[in-house]
Amino acid sequence: GAEYDSRERQPHPKCLKGTRVDLFNHIYGLLDNLTESRLIWLHGTVGVGKSAVAFTVAERMRHLKVIKETTSEKRLVGTFFFSRKYTKRCTTGYFFATLVYQLASNFFSIWDDVNRAICDNLALIDLDKSLHDQMEALFLRPLRSL
C-alpha cells in the first residue's frame, strides 16, 4: 500500500494542470540532470501538498524510459509514501522491502542479485533488521553490479 498508485491511497492526490509550474520545472530539471543525484527529498508542513506533488512527479516518471533504446527499464525506480494512519507505512520496517521489490521489478538485470541477497540472509526482510544492513545488501550491492 505504500507505492504511489496503491489502491489504499485513493483518491490519489494530484496537482491540477498548470499549478506549481516552477516547482515541477525545478524537480524535472533535477531529475533530467544525469550528472547529479536524482534522489529528491520532498518535505514541508502538513497539508501543503507534498503527496500531490510526489504523486504527480511519479506519474510522469513512470512513463519515461531510462534510455530510449531500452524496452522495459523505466526511470521511476520506486516510491514509498509514509502515513501515520497505516501501521505498515508509519515506520521504516517495510521501507526497503517495498523499494527493493520495485527496483528489481523495474530493473530485471539485478533481480538475481536481490534474490541471492535475500536467500543468503533471510533476516534482511525482517522488519526489525538494521536499515543500514538492508540498504547495503538489498540496494547498494545490486546497484553496483549495474
UniProtKB/TrEMBL annotation:
Q: Which residues form the Nephrocystin 3-like N-terminal domain?
A: 31-139
The alphabetical list of record keywords is: Repeat
Under Pfam families, the record lists: NPHP3_N (PF24883)
**What is this protein identified as?**
Nephrocystin 3-like N-terminal domain-containing protein
Q: Which domain of life is it from?
A: Eukaryota
Keyword Acetylation in annotation: no
- Supply the source organism for this entry: Rhizopogon vinicolor AM-OR11-026
State if Repeat is listed as a keyword: yes
Give the matching SUPFAM superfamilies: P-loop containing nucleoside triphosphate hydrolases
